Amino acid sequence: MTDSLTEILKAQAKVTAGGAEALTRAEAALRRFVWFPEPRHFDVVTLWTAYTHLLTRCPDLPVAPRLGFFSGSPGSGKTRALEILSHLAANGQDVGSLSAASMLRIISAAASANEPGAYPVTLFPDELDRTYSANSAGNQDDLTIILNSGYKRGAVVVRAHKDKQQEVIRYPCFGPVAFAGLATARLPDALLTRTFVVHTKRARSEERPDSFLPVAHGGELKNVHTALADWAAQAAVRITDPADMLAVLLDDRITSVTDGRDHEIWSCLFLTAVLAGGVWPERCLAAIEAAKEDAAERVDGSASARLLTALRLHYAARPAHVWPVAISKDDLASAAIDLDPLTFQRFSGPDELRAEDVAALLREHGLKQVRVRTAHGRAYGYRWSDLADAWERALPPLVTEHDEEHDGEGTEEETGSLFRQ
To answer: How far apart are CA 69 and CA 73, in angstroms?
Structure first.
């Protein structure tokens, strides 16, 4: 980078020698054992992994973004990604299916350790879709509190003392978490706004990464982990002044394209990239731009918003003479499944999205089902005019072929925020 901020950081020796090389080695390890359908996801995952090491050395860093791997079918590399990252991230623990009580005890034990760099730990729970399936309702509240509250440094969960009912125990719950599952629809919206979502697919034969054997390859990953840890320790010494940290976290290249929660999570990766130097700041900004291009086609943060997105695409593609006024809720469910099977085929455990689910999700946007006339007769459903109002309020503008011909002429405000969730 050639702008003034980078020149200032270099002049103040804030860019740590060896940082870019350490991140490049981490990316190479990921590419060897993991395959992602979109190359930019390697940049995001690499920067997130390096950021976990900064968290152990920089007590002023305030948040720990979550990382989520999701796909519509098994065998797409989600569990492998967690396994590899558990070897590369700071204090990584590959815990499989993790209960809320276990998570609190693991984090609490690390927080009470006196060894530098031992806290926070990075946890890797798998199969989160099972935890948030309809069949496990009532068993999710504690885990949701930890995953949401533990995003902020200093967060605690208060529990009553087992033997002394008049006393409470405060468990620290801060720390980075990477998780995986088969679908995102049942996950809490608030959790997804704290999460970098990576949609994975099953690799073709020519795309398959190398097999990973801990006995054979564990030492290589340990060396990469050590390089990241050493870099983070040096970077922490060079950025002890909060003003230096804020200069990067509030850089106008980040604030101009993100806001709110999106800014919080992306600024963490950008800070990591700037401290590492080399090509990483540019790659981080390119990842943001790529995510911005995806925003009009896929909304990752909310099941109800993804449903609205699918219905808008369905409406745009329908023949002009079909459903001129309204659509039934049963047809809405079928259209959503066809257009977004990753989300809605597994919406309720083994079942698909139902008409009742459609009604519950659309109520989040103030839409109520009414008796309407459709191409198949009278039924309960929704008027297109009501849906159009919800699209305008909740979604970024729909990208059309005409828009693509004039790409780059619109402002950020016209094209919608980076991640409307």
So the answer is: 12
